[in-house]
Specification:
alpha+beta, Lipid-binding serum glycoprotein N-terminal domain-containing protein, 8 strands, eight-stranded antiparallel beta sheet, elongated, 6 helices, Bactericidal permeability-increasing protein, domain 1
């Protein structure tokens, strides 16, 4: 309507014999917030390369420790029936996870809009070690996950010129797993080996059932819910602290990918030692 009024005014002035030239500027159309945005694969690859190094430093300013390796301080206590053959009480502590910085992403299945993002990641090998106690028998157990496919989904919105994450979700697929639960059957090493192999082979199926909501694991659901809350709170705290909306976030990510002087990257010397929360170049 405004454009029609402007055009009408120009036509009236022309008819009145005015010799003045009038330029009409049409403001650009606002992008559709749900329309997929183009992205440069090389730039995104540089961003993820920087992320892999950053995982060794973490983000101490936001309460995020080094994730290479990831060391979990809590103690897991649970129990289960092994096919009604044996009641097992499990205590796991000193959990350490390796391999979170070794991943690739699939550009063909990646999608960005101004309100949502989907990023698929692939981890060739993720290994978790823990000190375990099964019915009082102590030992070191480990789980090796091979070819883990993770799809991360995020939804966000802008309010008062700030960006907020409103939802985090995703799914996990597992190709193969190797399990060694120490002292599963202390009196029979052969039986322990058989059951460890069976548990490892069943893990991909169990993960798929859990993704589809067909398998309910109360403890795991609570753990994932807590991790989701922590992640959203940490991300929104960072966005708010640095006064970022969508456009300023994209600009910040480009700086991070290029390692500019005002990006939030840790020093290379600090990246070499993931156990120390020191060595920050920039605030």
């Amino acid at each position: 309507m405004v454009l029609l009024l402007v055009v009408g005014q120009v036509a009236t002035e022309a008819d009145s014999g005015s010799q003045e030239q009038t330029t009409v500027t049409v403001p650009p159309t606002s992008p559709n917030p749900t329309e997929p945005l183009p992205f440069d694969e090389t730039t995104v690859e540089r961003f993820f390369t920087a992320v892999k190094s950053q995982l060794q430093c973490g983000y101490p300013m936001f309460g995020v420790p080094s994730l290479v390796p990831l060391k979990l301080s809590y103690t897991l206590k649970t129990s289960f029936d092994l096919l009604s053959l044996k009641k097992i009480s499990v205590v796991a502590s000193n959990i350490t996870v390796h391999g979170l910085n070794e991943f690739s992403w699939d550009p063909s299945r990646t999608r960005f809009t101004r309100t949502a993002a989907t990023v698929p990641l692939s981890f060739p090998n993720v290994t978790a070690f823990a000190h375990t106690s099964l019915n009082g028998a102590n030992g070191t157990s480990f789980v090796e996950l091979r070819n883990v496919s993770v799809r991360l989904d995020a939804q966000y919105e802008e309010k008062d010129d700030l960006l907020y994450v409103t939802e985090l979700s995703g799914s996990i697929l597992l190709e193969d797993a190797k399990v060694k639960i120490a002292s599963l059957f202390p009196k029979s090493a052969k039986l322990s080996k058989i059951w460890n192999k069976a548990i490892g082979k069943s893990l991909p199926i169990l993960v798929e059932l859990f993704n589809g909501g067909k398998l309910k694991i109360e403890y795991l659901s609570r753990l994932l819910s807590g991790a989701k809350f922590y992640a959203m709170n940490t991300i929104n705290n960072a966005l708010n602290t640095h006064n970022l909306n969508f456009d300023r976030l994209v600009e910040s990510m480009l700086k991070f990918a290029d390692g500019t002087s005002d990006s939030l990257q840790c020093e290379e010397s600090a990246a070499m030692n993931g156990n120390e929360l020191v060595g920050w170049q920039r605030a």
